[in-house]
Specification:
The protein has a single domain, classed as Up-down Bundle (Amino acid/polyamine transporter I), CATH 1.20.1740.10. A hairpin with a 1-residue loop joins strand 1 and strand 2. The chain has a two-stranded antiparallel sheet with strand order 1-2. By secondary structure, the protein is mostly helical. The termini are far apart.
C-alpha cells in the first residue's frame, strides 16, 4: 500500500525542533508557495502596475505582502491541530450547501478564473522560447510545455516539487534583487525620499490602473489561491502527522504548539523571500518602464519586461532575463498546478467521491485534475492570446475571494478550532486586523473600479 501523507499514523508522531535553526531546517511548504507566488503575479502583474502607476501604488504591494500571512497561518494552524485539510475547514462554514459548502464552490470558481493566469504563463514562456528559437511558433512551444508539465506532475510527490521550487525561487529572486539594487543607485530614476513620499501616500492609481492594483493585491504576496494551497503542503510535509491525532493531552498540545512554531518560521521565511522579489519587481517597473511610458501588452510583453534587466544590469543581462523568465513563469505553472490538483481532489472527497483514508482514489483524482488544470489554461491562451490581460483577470478573481477567506479564517479561529490550541491574543488581533483590512480595501477598490 502506498504511503498516505494525509493519514495520522501514531508511528509518525515526532517531537518538534526547539531552536530557530533547527526549525529552519524543517521548512518547505512556504518555499513551494513562494515558487507559485514569484511568477505571473510578480514578473507580469506587479511590473505592469509599476509601469502604469509609477511609485504611487508601492504601499499596495507592501501591504499585500505583509497582511495576508495572518490568514494563511490560521488556516495552516487549523490543519495541524485537527488533521483536516484547509478545504475541509471551509466546508464547515454556515450557509447554503450543494454537496459542499458555498465557500468551497467559490474557491472552485476562483481557481477556474486563475487558470487564465496559468495560460498567460504558458504563453509567456512560449514567447521567450520563440524569441530564442524562432523556428517553432509560440503555439507549438505551448504544446511542448504542456507535455513537459504532464510528465513532471503525474505521480510527482512532495519532495520533487519542493526541490524544484527551491532552486527556482533562489535563482530568480537573487537576479531581480540585484537589478533593483542597481536601480536604486541611479539618481535619475530613483530618489528614496521621493519614492517613499509617493509610494506611501496611500492613494489608489487613477483610471484603469485601479484594475491592475486590485489584481496585484489578489495575487501578490501570498495570494488567495496560495492561501488555500498552503495547508495541503503542510500536511504533505508532515506537520499534522508529526503532531498526531488530537487527544488534548499535554504531550499532544506541546507537539502541536511546536509544529505550529515551525509553520510560523516557514511562513516568515517565505514572506521574506517573496516580499523582496515583489518589491524589486515593482520598483523596476516604476523606475524603468513608467518614465518611458512602456506598459507590457499582448504582443510586446517579453521585450518590454526585458528592459527592467537590460537597463539596470546592462545588455548582457538579456540572456539572464530570458532564462529567469522561463524558470519563473514555468515554475509557477508547475507549483500552482501541483497544488490545485490536490485541492480539487479533496473537493471530490468532500463531495462524497471517496473516503478520507482512500489514498489511491485521492491520487487518481489528483492526476485527473492535473490533466484538466494543464489543458484548460492552454485552451485559454490559444483563445485569448493576451498574457497581461489574462493575468489581470485571474488576479481580480483572487482579490474577490479574499473577503471570503478573511471571514473563513475568523470562523476557524473562533468556532471550529480546538480551544486548547487556539492562538494567543496577539495572533488573534493580527488575524482580525488582516481580515478587516482586506475586506475594506477590496470592497473600496471594487466600488471605485466600477465607477471608473
Amino acid at each position: 500500500m502506498s504511503f498516505d501523507p494525509y493519514r495520522l499514523d501514531p508511528a509518525a508522531v515526532e517531537a518538534p525542533p526547539t531552536t530557530f535553526w533547527a526549525s529552519l531546517r524543517r521548512i518547505g511548504p512556504g518555499l513551494i508557495l513562494a515558487a507559485s507566488i514569484v511568477g505571473s503575479g510578480e514578473l507580469i502583474a506587479t511590473t505592469t502596475l509599476g509601469a502604469e502607476a509609477g511609485y504611487l501604488a508601492l504601499w499596495i504591494v507592501v501591504f499585500s505582502c505583509f497582511i495576508k500571512p495572518a490568514m494563511q497561518a490560521e488556516i495552516g494552524r487549523y490543519s495541524i491541530v485537527t488533521g483536516e485539510t484547509g478545504l475541509a475547514g471551509f466546508n464547515r462554514l454556515p450557509g447554503p450547501r450543494f454537496m459542499v459548502s458555498w465557500s468551497v464552490w467559490a474557491w472552485a470558481a476562483m481557481v477556474i478564473m486563475s487558470l487564465f493566469q496559468i495560460g498567460a504563463m504558458f504563453g509567456g514562456v512560449a514567447q521567450v522560447l520563440n524569441t530564442l528559437l524562432p523556428g517553432l511558433p509560440v503555439n507549438a512551444w505551448v504544446i511542448l510545455l504542456l507535455g513537459l508539465t504532464l510528465w513532471l506532475l503525474l505521480g510527482g510527490g512532495y519532495e520533487r516539487i519542493e526541490r524544484l521550487a527551491t532552486i527556482k525561487v533562489a535563482l530568480f529572486t537573487l537576479l531581480t534583487f540585484m537589478a533593483a539594487v542597481l536601480l536604486m543607485r541611479r539618481s535619475d530614476l530613483f530618489v528614496a525620499s521621493d519614492v517613499l513620499t509617493q509610494g506611501f501616500s496611500f492613494q489608489l492609481p487613477p483610471g484603469a490602473g485601479i484594475i491592475t492594483a486590485i489584481a496585484v493585491f489578489g495575487i501578490t504576496g501570498v495570494g488567495a489561491s496560495e492561501i488555500f494551497m498552503y495547508p495541503y503542503w503542510c500536511v504533505e510535509k508532515g506537520y499534522a502527522r508529526f503532531t498526531g491525532a488530537r487527544d488534548s493531552s499535554p504531550a499532544w498540545l506541546a507537539r502541536a504548539r511546536g509544529w505550529i512554531r515551525v509553520m510560523h518560521t516557514d511562513i516568515l521565511a517565505s514572506m521574506f523571500i517573496y516580499t523582496i522579489a515583489t518589491v524589486a519587481f515593482y520598483l523596476l517597473g516604476a523606475g524603468i518602464l513608467h518614465p518611458q511610458g512602456l506598459v507590457p501588452s499582448a504582443n510586446d510583453m517579453i521585450p518590454v519586461l526585458s528592459k527592467i534587466y537590460t537597463e539596470t544590469l546592462g545588455p548582457w543581462a538579456l540572456a539572464l532575463f530570458y532564462a529567469g523568465a522561463i524558470f519563473t513563469l514555468y515554475g509557477t505553472i508547475f507549483a500552482a498546478t501541483a497544488a490545485h490538483s490536490r485541492v480539487f481532489a479533496d473537493m471530490v472527497r468532500l463531495s462524497g467521491g471517496f473516503r478520507h483514508d482512500d489514498y489511491p482514489s485521492r491520487l487518481l483524482w489528483r492526476n485527473r485534475f492535473v490533466w484538466m488544470l494543464t489543458v484548460v489554461p492552454v485552451i485559454f491562451f490559444f483563445t485569448f492570446q493576451s498574457p497581461v490581460s489574462m493575468v489581470k483577470a485571474g488576479g481580480y478573481a483572487q482579490a474577490l475571494m479574499l473577503p471570503i477567506i478573511a471571514a473563513g479564517s475568523l470562523f476557524l479561529r473562533h468556532r471550529a478550532s480546538p480551544p486548547e490550541a487556539q492562538p494567543g491574543p496577539l495572533m488573534t488581533a493580527g488575524l482580525w486586523i488582516a481580515s478587516i483590512s482586506s475586506i475594506i480595501l477590496i470592497s473600496a477598490s471594487v466600488i471605485l473600479s466600477l465607477q471608473t
